[in-house]
Amino acid sequence: MELAKLQLQLEIKWIHPTVHGTKPLSSKGHSAVFLNDRILILKKGAKSDDQIWFLEVDTQYVRQQQKQLGTEVVAWSKGVIGNAEKPVVISGPSGVGKGTLISMLMKEFPSMFGFSVSHTTRAPRGMEKDGVHYHFTEKSVMEKEIKDGKFLEFASVHGNLYGTSVEAVEVVADAGKRCILDIDVQGARSVRSSSLEAVFIFVCPPSMEELEKRLRDRGTETEEQILKRLRNAAAEIEQGKSSNIFDFILYNDNLEECYEKLKKLLGLGGCVAATPKSAALGEFNLPLDHSVSKIDDKIIINCISSGLEKESKNLIMLDVSALKGGAPGRTRGLDFQAIGSFSDGLIGMERLS
Ligand SMILES: Nc1nc2c(ncn2[C@@H]2O[C@H](COP(=O)(O)OP(=O)(O)O)[C@@H](O)[C@H]2O)c(=O)[nH]1
Ligand SMILES: Nc1ncnc2c1ncn2[C@@H]1O[C@H](COP(=O)(O)OP(=O)(O)O)[C@@H](O)[C@H]1O
Fold first, then answer.
1. Boundaries of domain holding 194
2. What per-residue confidence (pLDDT) applies to 346?
3. Does Disulfide bond appear among the keywords (predicted)?
């Protein structure tokens, strides 16, 4: 019996999984805590925005990727204190006015919204700037990056490749802004089934004739491209209206009226505070010398040589009960609290954020 066990042990093979996500840079040391489907890594002596990481081993994203690639997969995700507001996905046929509505929103609320800059293989239009309207890229480069797991979603639209990189969405949330994605219906469907929780809006034209007029008047496409966009529009409208991807359908007939409706459903109807809700809350540097234990969803960090102002506050509680997002993007929803010291008898709780 013992021999059989030993033989079994000897047969265990090391597996080298495919690693997705951006790996943390090495540090002077780290603590690791096993949660149900991922490993929490606390980097010692790292800066406050680089100290919490997760290595996902059995999350929904990892399982999806394993199925797709047919290999073992693990994925890195950086941990962030606090939550970001739900991103807004806006879809609709070419020429319906998505870009116009988004520009109006960004102009009126510059500190509240940020645009997810997509990658595309199509050529830039006259006024379009690389890195602002799109990241204009080569097909082979984009395909390689898609393979490396750098994209949240991608699709072939009107004969070109378009995609939202994980970074495009996360940098907006990192800046404490609400992210707006202008993507097609296929992309919206992919985001719907991803770990990113979003609000989905589909913009419809008042008629096909008006759509054609807007596309022609915009004057940015060749006749062939206009015809291709119009051919695709009917199917897109059909999918947008009938699929259960979208939470709201907006008719863009009168522009001002449509914009008012858009603001209303984003909760911007009345008097709005223009200050963004910052995602980066509080500053706390994990000292080199600490020990870590886990009680249910709470990670207790005992800072032995406390880097905190008050020596007595050397116990920190990291709450991982409400994690949001995760690989291939950031893991949000973490909460830090100073909970005193053993000598205090755990008196008082003070949120560090
Ligand atoms: N899936 C996906 N679609 C995108 C992305 N970026 C843009 N699109 C969509 O691609 C389509 C064509 O966009 P564009 O070339 O800018 O032309 P326009 O819609 O006529 O202004 C539109 O439906 C966009 O919503 C992206 O990152 N992913
Ligand atoms: N409600 C509207 N009424 C008339 N023209 C509009 C309206 N909304 C947008 N447009 C115009 O239609 C054209 C296409 O709009 P655009 O925002 O570029 O569409 P999309 O981003 O959906 O392709 C632009 O020239 C824009 O000025």
1. 88-266
2. 44
3. no
